[in-house]
Structures are given as structure tokens and as C-alpha cells.
């Protein structure tokens, strides 16, 4: 094992690191709500595309539930 640690220590460290990363990302999403205005950014970027492509992408995003 790396650095001369046992399998148990290596696995417990890996699990605790993974759980802390998951908890941190969940905290960011609960506190800052980064996806709450995603539709505004999508609409802004769609304005740079031709109208036929905009309509196609909008329809696909509505079918997937990303846009309302």
C-alpha cells in the first residue's frame, strides 16, 4: 500500500474523503443554490444561435425537463 499504511487505514481514509466531498458539494447546493437560475444562462446562450437551432434545442430541453 502507499506510504506503508494498512488496507484498513487506506480504505477508511478513502471512504471518509469521499463522504466529506459529497457533504461539501451538497452544502454548496443547499446554501448557494447554483442551479436556480440556470434557465437564464441557457436563454442567454441560445440567443447566439440561429432561430431554427434555438427552437430545436429549446424543445429538447423542455422534453428533458430542464426548461419550463
Commentary on this structure:
With 68 residues, the protein is mostly helical. It folds into 2 domains: 1-34; 37-68. It is built from 3 helices and no strands. The protein has helices at 7-32, 38-46, 51-64. The longest helix has 26 residues, at 7-32. It is elongated and about 60 Å long. The N and C termini lie far apart (51 Å). The model has no long low-confidence stretch (mean pLDDT 91).
Summary tags:
single chain, 2 domains, mainly alpha, 68 residues
In short:
This protein is mainly alpha-helical and 68 residues long.
Order of helices and strands: HHH
What is the helical fraction, as a range of percent? Answer: over 70%
User: Approximately how much beta-strand content do the residues carry?
Assistant: under 5%
Instruction: Count helical runs.
Output: 3
Terminus-to-terminus distance: 51 Å
* Global structural class: mainly alpha
Mean pLDDT: 91
Q: How many domain regions?
A: 2
| Rg over C-alpha atoms, rounded to the nearest angstrom | 21 Å
Shape, principal axes of CA atoms: elongated
The stretches of 5 or more residues where confidence is low (pLDDT under 50) are: none
Number of strands: 0
Amino acid at each position: 500500500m502507499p506510504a506503508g499504511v494498512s488496507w484498513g487505514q487506506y480504505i477508511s481514509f478513502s471512504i471518509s474523503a469521499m463522504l466529506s466531498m459529497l457533504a461539501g458539494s451538497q452544502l454548496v447546493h443547499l446554501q448557494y443554490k447554483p442551479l436556480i437560475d440556470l434557465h437564464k444562462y441557457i436563454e442567454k446562450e441560445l440567443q447566439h444561435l440561429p432561430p431554427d437551432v434555438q427552437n430545436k434545442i429549446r424543445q429538447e430541453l423542455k422534453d428533458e425537463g430542464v426548461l419550463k
